[in-house]
Amino acid sequence: MTDRGPTLTQRLRARGLDGVTLLVLPCVLAIIALFIYPFLYGLWLSFQPKDGTTMGNYDRFFREPFLYKTIWTTLKISIPVTILNLLLAVPIAFRVRLMKHQRLLTTILVLPITLGTVLVAEGMLFYFGPQGWFSRTVMALGLMDHAPSITHGYWGVFLSLLITGFPFTFLLTLSYVTGIEPALEQAAATLGAGPAARFREIFLPLLLPGLAITFCLSFVQAYSVLPSAILVGDPANTTRVISIAAYQAAFEDYDYSLASAIAMIMGAVQLVVVAAILGARTLVYRGPVAAAKG
Description:
The protein is an all-alpha fold. It folds into two domains: 1-46, no CATH class; 54-284, MetI-like fold (Orthogonal Bundle). The chain is built from 15 helices and no strands. The radius of gyration is 25 Å and the shape is flat. It is a multi-pass membrane protein.
């Protein structure tokens, strides 16, 4: 009897291409259609400026202060917000992990993430605006003789991003904090290590890689600051971020080529910051990482 060898199905299965693996194919197609193709098309479009030169859009962006200064404006908002969110999330996560009603407290803390940026901004306008409750209370108590300028400026955008970004940062931080084996802390306490020493010698080294990833993800979220910068900021001046520049180029000037170039620069700046944080993490710590839960 002639040995006809393995069938095509058997050969594909041997290479890991079975029926279960093929279920991933729709996801791959969706990623190509929604992310890879738009990115490649936008990259190609950014090299098609109206003046006909290949690098015309990029040359214009870095030549005009009204455009390139948006990079610094965006970083000046997003990086401090990310740092403060992380500094708030770490101690709160350590406290919440020891409480009985952890799920209830977590739900309360992450509630702002369900509201969305626009609804939070609208609420801030009603509360912190010139005629809002906060402003009227401050003036009624005689603390100030005029309404505090919180909205329609830098601090309005800062506070909006802090409110909407904290739940995301907190959830990521809590997952890493609860992923640390409690026996390690108990062993250190048995050996006489105090709370500060336990945090410095056990928790911090294990959390550093996770905190670096949390910082990167929170930074990327804060970097796309378009709704807050317009609703509670000063989009023509102090909070004219790079996403506003891209929006104006596309939908006010109808220069989609320049808008694509600005979007590419926006992504490149994010990649630089993320690469710097991950590189610094590698230099500082290369040991085991706390496993995230949830």
